[in-house]
Batch of 3 targets.
Target 1
Amino acid sequence: MAASFTRDSGTQTPTTYDRFQELKAFDDSKSGVKGLVDAGITKIPRIFCRPKVEDHDSVKPIPTQFTIPVIDLENIKTWSDEVVEGIRKAGGEVGFFQVVNHGVPQSVLEEMLAAARGFHELPTEVKKSYYTREKTKKVIYGSNFDLYESRFANWRDTLFCVMGPEPLHPQQLPLVCRDITMEYSKQIHKLGTTLFKLLSKAIGLTPDHLIGLDCSKGHCLLSHYYPACPEPELTLGTTKHSDPDFLTILLQDHIGGLQVSHQNQWFDVPFLPGALVVNIGSLLQLISNDKLKSAEHQVLANEKGPRVSVACFFTPHLYPSTRIYGPIKELLSKENPPLYRETTVEDFISYYDSKGLDEKSALAHFKLQP
Ligand SMILES: O=C(O)CCC(=O)C(=O)O
């Protein structure tokens, strides 16, 4: 039996119920959150009810001038000081920015979003063949990778595809999104390589330094589907977290709901037609010794929907590597001692996965004592 939270998350009268059985029933249905909505529910099951909102969440953002930086990559070939400085500030002070004129054609962005939606709107019987919690699979359809670890389930389903470093055989992808996923993956990997070069330069390293550390070696695509939610105030689309990778490039549709934490307040990451959202992952914060910051972010549930987004995580996930990652030596000095202990990507990800999204930042676990 587990303590739970009542539907009125404001009053928080604990009740007990067999949470595990309810999680398992949801998991065994293999039909995700979309399956609940298709079944016509008008109240969200209690496994999705979030605990009392934390202070940080309940603080209403005060009006401020802050907006998420937008970086124009039009003149990328000239490596203008303006672009490099823009990336340094955005990556080092906010951890989140949008890029425009990034070189990925608009038609590719639109087709990718449509195909992601197309997959999630396939009949459940078709999607079920991809449903698994077997983490070593390269193509996984599921709902809440941390279903059994988290304090409450999120209003979100995901198709997860490991695209590199070993090329995914297209036949492994569902037909409805096969060709465009291969094309999008290629284009987004190219953009990621450029961003790693700019980020290297922005923190005072040679342009190829981060690539030399295999930061762009592997990437995964996560196609998220957030169905319209009948009681959005009681749950979240994605719990607050920072990403367990080097870098994330996100394609989002127009529905909205993504928020980033900056100076202890939540700010909307607005939909900007044609733009891609970029955020620094925790592993890049670790190796840059805090010169780059991975900001916490979350996605609100919404009564409008579905919302669709496609995140590309740059991480050599699943790739058998023994490479040790720690703060980059060139960035260290007497005044800038290492802030983190060394780790492998595998150890970092296993720690991250073991705690679920809604606990302390994974970075805290790797922080050296002052
Ligand atoms: O759907 C979004 O906008 C964000 C998704 C996200 O935070 C993630 O994949 O880690």
Target 2
Amino acid sequence: MTTPFDQEPPPECPAHGLGAGGLRRLYGAEAENDPMGVYEKLRAEHGPVAPVLIHGDVPAWLVLGHTENLYMTRTPSLFSRDSRRWARLHDGSIAPDNPLTPVFTWQPMCVFADGAEHERTRSAVTEAIDRIDTRGTRRFINRYSNRLVNDFCEGGLADLVGRFAEHLPMMVMCQILGMPEEYSERLVQAARDMIKGTETAIASNAYVMAALMRLVAARRAAPENDFATRLIQHPAGMTDDEVGQHLRLTLIASYETTANLIANVLRMVLTDPRFRAQLSGGHMTVPEAVEQTLWDEPPFTTILGRWAVCDTELGGQQIKAGDALLVGIAPANVDPVVRPDPHASMMGNRAHMAFSGGAHECPGQDVGRAIAEVGVDALLMRLPDIELAVEEHELRWNSALMSRHLMELPVKFQPQPQQDVTRPPDPAASRRPQPEWEVTMSEPKTGTGSAPVPQQPAPFQAPPQQQPVAYIPAQRRPSAPKRLWQSVSRWWRGY
Ligand code: HEM
């Protein structure tokens, strides 16, 4: 039987988005400029599972259908997380310097494990996450957010990616893991660098690992009530090396994704007329903006991946044992089968694939949501008149196989004085009952609900847990949105 991967390329093929066998590439100019457009072409050409080429023109399958993605992630007996099964690794078709090597090289971590071994290491991570003090963490998120805003609020201008989104998750995660004193610009840069696979990635990885191994040694000697100690003390009996690797995994898995989510939520809040429309109805809140963003701009667009355990069929395609498959998060989220109108509000619906599914589904999703919700909320409270400082079409994105991020988000606002973030949180606030990980939604403060109520500068206090919090500011350029919205929706439709 021949597969799409065996066919020769048509010699006349002019499209640079096509490679061997006329297959579409998920890398290169076309895929990087318009990934959603490529996904939709693939869906039209192949249905819910499409043959594609990834870096180095290595063949793989991209799973586009929502149902097929769920099936794949929930059926580890057919689709393993163990990359050592990849037949292409053994037939010489993947060069040793393939840029995706850091993504697919097997490591002794829960991400690459199946079955009992996955259960052993993952249970340590999930229990450590479950025991995070949610109220205390929300207070830290709020305090760190205000500290970051203090650094730029007096200027009236800021890039929210570089000054806010890229820092907040690292500050919070250093606190959660148990190393708040290690947070620094250098750590932020090193974490980004090692994910990007740049020339300095190895040195950056060594820098991050050294910080984490110092933490492991310190907690082994003197346990504390933090994430690192919980990993060490878990009955899974992790070695120091395993603890260090899982701390690194947690830092990477949480940092890049949550930074992306914050940036994407802020962009939507500032530019997307759907929020304005909702606001005129009065009730689009920050948590709803976060959820809509997880549908429309998930921090991971795809995940490499899963590897077929045996010959099988998925979405009408014949998958061979040892084939690689990508979890198609972004395409699954706009699959017409589950979302016939891609512009419809998904309010109240959390069935997106942003956190994947099955046994490897993200265990930190509530932490990620909380950082984004509390952080964006705190920023909007401090800078209620915030607006984009450039036209939306001037925003620049950086795309890779597995994610797409905003490079800058320049904003302007009325300069505000700094607030005191050193005062201890109000203890009464933590005694009040509150839902876990949930940002309270406010009632509109104006008749139309079209704008947030400006805050008077005041000393910083812990967030009032059952009091109203910020509404998303209304779009402040009444004439611009229509044109901008057209460009956004064109981007989503891919034409
Ligand atoms: C909004 C932010 C986040 C998003 C969108 C996200 C998304 C994901 C996705 C798509 C996966 C891959 C699942 C798969 O292979 O099928 C994953 C795995 C993982 N995430 Fe997250 N994540 C986020 C935040 C976090 C946070 C804050 C933490 C830790 C506190 C975390 C910890 C992990 C871990 C440990 C794994 C590996 C789980 C396993 O393989 O069993 N993530 N995440």
Target 3
Amino acid sequence: MVIFSEPHGPDGRDLQGHWVYAPLGELQVTGAGAYVVCHACGDLLTHISAAHLSRHDLTPSAYRQRYRLPAHLPLTSPAARARRTAVGNRRWGPAGDLRTPVLTRAHAYRAEVEARAHQRATELGYRDLHDCVRQLYRDQGQTLPEVALMLTISRRVLLRLLDEAGVARRDARFKAGRAQKKSDAV
Ligand SMILES: [Zn+2]
């Protein structure tokens, strides 16, 4: 299946010889917003996930780069994105959420930080914040400061997210505070 010839070679491959199934520089949306088209295989997906891209030996950022998509373009269909945002807000709770009326100021701030980080994680193509920190830190081997910076969260928040995600830490120096609870064995 060859869909686009511009600006590729006449046989529908790009200059590196990869087949390209959707226009470069944009995410093709179909099914009234329900699906996006994977540039690498033509599949219709609600979300071009990191797991899906691993089948093409690509990370979300390598995918964006190869197909000339903006660095922060969400790889999620508009319909799915709206659903995820709603789910994320339930899970991570925007500040002032009526379901948690006794939030202290610190809690409200933390919820706001996490909601923003969750949004960022989904925009980067991850299922949620836990999935994101798990993949960046454990699977891609990024450092704590790198992951924290990418999500604009503090190291403390990141450590808690890693604990919640069941990811063991690589470096004992960053072991969080007094709760010396050993995270799961590697
Ligand atoms: Zn694909």
